[in-house]
């Protein structure tokens, strides 16, 4: 069913003056619309500020494509003894945020008490920037993402509502902080929040029973960008995920100090209750087309070793030879003692393989993305990131402190629209090449065209493309027949190459810069020479024996055909073939049943994928036989269709 925005505003009239009583909003599915509407009406009718004589309930249909999903700010609580101490705490926090006129801003807060909305205040000049000074501005169209936690519809939850608004405001253009005091007479707390500091809850900012309360958004930036800030606060639909449970963080030795592990216990309990608890399966053989698991031979249909290089005889022989000569460890970071001729040989080979001037090896693909993005971008820059990018890209963006603008998955029109709406002096477009959970391929020609037009850096994560797509397995540019490549070509050595590590390829000037500025490269002990050698041999085999890539690509097409013949919709150009099941519990049950029949297939659940889109993530190898693929497709079809039949009956 569709999604709806519900907004409730309650007021009464005293001596000809309208008085705001209550306001709340939700973003809900059609199936929950009536229940939430009823709950919000009751909330407006029965409020501690008085009885409403006018309630406005506004319901709008919205599209999921309009929604920006944000991660919650980290939260902490500062306990204070009285509201005077609370106000001093706000002043101290503002000063730590390099806001010099903190005491004057606190005085400005009193001007917000009669306003229905918030004040937009220049943090330095203290000029009010909201168009309507009497009404203020209203940050709306937001809610918590309730996936994975139980919610009592009838109950008001001031903490969750505050966390939602704080997160939305923190990501607004040029908003550097927010101050809020609740106007609810039963709620004496308030908070200060910013993207860098997080959400800081202060336990007492007024006396109980007081209806004083208000909000200030602190703005620092070009005045020409005020309207884009207002548009974001008042029009952008937002869901905030992963809101942490409320904790008052007791003083050590005080009440509750002996229960410091409770939040971990509760978190693990919730994961288990929602079929989201993760555990590891222990294999007792090499990673190959067949593995040994719990004493049973299994057909491996979940590995990223797409070309079966991790168990290749030539790779192992060369690795042992290098280990005998260079030993098992590197002894230091790359800039001290950890660079051998083997490391240099791998980087030269990677540059040749990808057709670039130079290359640099990192310890993992995750460390490559984190290190590259955080070195290239800073707080005044903008990163335009696909909504389905890998977690390592997302974390690299966050670590950079650049403003992150998320565009709809592989939607180049939306990307261009967001670039036009968010001009910047320096920016980066970053995308997976092959998306790790869906197996689809980025529209690279359009992405490069847009990056060139708007003079933005282009970056591609080819973790699941290298050795998989393109006639020779060279990746995305070869797949599309392009001569031009992204500015930053990142990849891993742990998937089709079958070893360990990450890499980046590009201009020599880029590589020189990252050697000097990328912290995950500079401050890590380098990969062992043996692991490095295995990557060298695997890449040489890919370059010299194209039949390996060809065998993988033929297996992909054949397996998809077998799945369709077994009643499962499947079509992929990559080694990743997802079968969407939906529910987490059912997906786990199907995966376990397949495991019992000798097929090792991973069940992928929230938060790796969206809630309700749990799936079997099947990955193929070049060494799977047609007989194995046909038999496994038939078994998968029988089991999946059996469960789907139960749902329809």
Could you explain the architecture of this structure?
The structure is a single chain. This protein has 649 residues and is α/β, with parallel strands linked by helices. Helices cover 35% and strands 22% of the residues. α8 (341-354) runs parallel beside α16 and α18 (584-596) packs across α19. The longest helix is centred in the C-terminal third of the chain and has 23 residues, at 626-648. The protein is globular and about 90 Å long.
Outline of this structure?
With 649 residues, this protein is α/β, with parallel strands linked by helices.
Distance between the termini: 20 Å
Strand content: 15-25%
Number of strands: 25
- Principal-axes shape call: globular
Global structural class: alpha/beta
Q: Uncertain regions: pLDDT < 50 for 5+ in a row?
A: 148-154, 249-258
Architecture blueprint of SSEs:
Layout: E1 3-14, E2 17-29, H1 33-45, E3 54-62, E4 67-71, E5 75-78, H2 83-96, H3 102-109, E6 119-122, E7 142-144, H4 158-170, E8 175-181, E9 190-194, E10 198-202, E11 214-219, H5 226-235, E12 237-241, H6 262-273, E13 290-293, E14 296-300, H7 313-326, H8 341-354, E15 358-362, H9 365-376, E16 382-386, H10 391-400, E17 403-407, H11 412-421, E18 427-432, H12 444-453, E19 457-461, H13 476-480, E20 488-492, E21 502-506, H14 508-517, H15 519-522, H16 529-544, H17 547-565, E22 576-582, H18 584-596, E23 599-600, E24 602-604, E25 614-619, H19 626-648
Parallel strand pairs: 4-12, 5-10, 6-11, 7-12, 14-23, 16-17, 16-18, 18-19, 19-20
Antiparallel strand pairs: 1-2, 1-3, 8-9, 8-11, 9-10, 13-14, 15-21, 20-21, 22-25, 24-25
Helix pairs in contact: 7-16, 8-16, 9-10, 17-19, 18-19
């Amino acid at each position: 069913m569709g999604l709806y925005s519900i907004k409730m505003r309650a007021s009464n009239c005293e001596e000809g003056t309208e008085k705001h009583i209550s306001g709340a909003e939700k973003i809900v599915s059609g199936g929950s619309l009536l229940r939430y509407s009823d709950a919000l009406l009751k909330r407006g009718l029965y409020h501690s500020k008085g009885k409403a004589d006018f309630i406005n309930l506004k319901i709008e249909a919205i599209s999921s494509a309009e929604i920006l999903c944000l991660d919650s700010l980290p939260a902490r609580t500062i306990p204070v003894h009285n509201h005077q101490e609370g106000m001093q705490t706000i002043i101290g926090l503002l000063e730590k945020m390099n806001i010099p006129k903190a005491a004057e801003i606190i005085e400005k807060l009193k001007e917000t008490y009669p306003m229905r909305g918030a004040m937009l205040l220049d943090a330095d000049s203290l000029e009010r920037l909201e168009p309507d000074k009497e009404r203020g501005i209203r940050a709306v169209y937001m809610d918590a993402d309730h996936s994975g936690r139980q919610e009592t519809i009838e109950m008001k939850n001031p903490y969750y509502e505050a966390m939602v608004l704080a997160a939305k405001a923190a990501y607004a253009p040029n908003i550097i902080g927010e101050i809020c005091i609740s106007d609810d007479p039963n709620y004496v707390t308030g908070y200060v929040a910013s993207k860098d500091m997080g959400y800081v809850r202060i336990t007492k900012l007024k006396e109980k029973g007081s209806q004083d309360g208000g909000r200030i958004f602190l703005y620092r930036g070009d005045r020409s960008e005020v309207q884009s800030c207002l548009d974001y606060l008042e029009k952008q639909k937002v869901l905030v995920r992963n809101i942490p449970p409320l904790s008052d963080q007791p003083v050590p030795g005080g009440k509750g100090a002996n229960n410091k592990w409770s939040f971990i216990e509760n978190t693990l309990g919730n994961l288990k209750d929602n079929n989201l608890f993760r555990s590891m399966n222990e294999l007792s053989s090499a990673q190959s087309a067949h593995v040994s698991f719990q004493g049973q031979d299994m057909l491996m249909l979940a590995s990223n070793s797409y070309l079966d290089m991790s168990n290749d005889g030539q790779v192992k022989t060369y690795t042992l030879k290098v280990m005998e000569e260079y030993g098992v460890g590197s002894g230091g970071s790359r800039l001290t003692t950890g660079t051998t001729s083997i490391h240099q040989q791998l980087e030269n080979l990677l540059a040749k393989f990808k057709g670039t001037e130079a290359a640099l090896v990192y310890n993992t693909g995750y460390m490559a993305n984190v290190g590259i993005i955080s070195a290239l971008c800073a707080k005044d820059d903008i990163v335009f990131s696909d909504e389905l990018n890998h977690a390592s890209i997302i974390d690299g963006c966050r670590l950079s402190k650049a403003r992150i603008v998320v565009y709809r998955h592989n939607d180049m029109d939306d990307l261009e629209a967001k670039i036009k709406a968010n001009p910047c002096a320096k920016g980066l477009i970053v995308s997976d090449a092959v998306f790790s959970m869906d197996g689809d391929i980025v529209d690279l020609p359009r992405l490069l065209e847009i990056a060139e037009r708007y003079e933005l850096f282009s970056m591609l994560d080819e973790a699941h493309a290298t050795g998989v797509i393109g006639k020779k397995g060279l990746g995305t540019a070869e797949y599309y027949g392009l001569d031009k490549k992204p500015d930053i070509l990142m990849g891993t050595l742990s998937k089709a190459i079958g070893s360990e590590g990450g890499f980046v390829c590009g201009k020599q000037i880029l590589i020189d810069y990252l050697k000097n500025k990328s912290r995950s490269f500079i401050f890590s002990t380098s990969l062992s020479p043996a692991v490095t050698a295995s990557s060298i041999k695997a890449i040489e085999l890919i370059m010299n024996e194209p039949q390996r890539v060809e065998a993988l690509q033929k297996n992909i097409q054949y397996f998809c055909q077998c799945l369709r013949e077994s009643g499962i919709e499947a079509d992929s150009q990559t080694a990743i073939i997802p079968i969407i099941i939906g529910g987490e519990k059912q997906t786990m049950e199907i995966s376990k049943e397949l495991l019992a029949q000798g097929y090792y297939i991973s069940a992928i659940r929230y938060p790796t994928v969206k809630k309700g889109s749990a799936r079997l993530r099947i990955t193929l190898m070049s060494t799977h036989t047609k007989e194995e693929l046909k038999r496994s497709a038939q078994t998968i079809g029988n089991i999946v269709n059996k469960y789907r039949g139960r749902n329809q009956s």
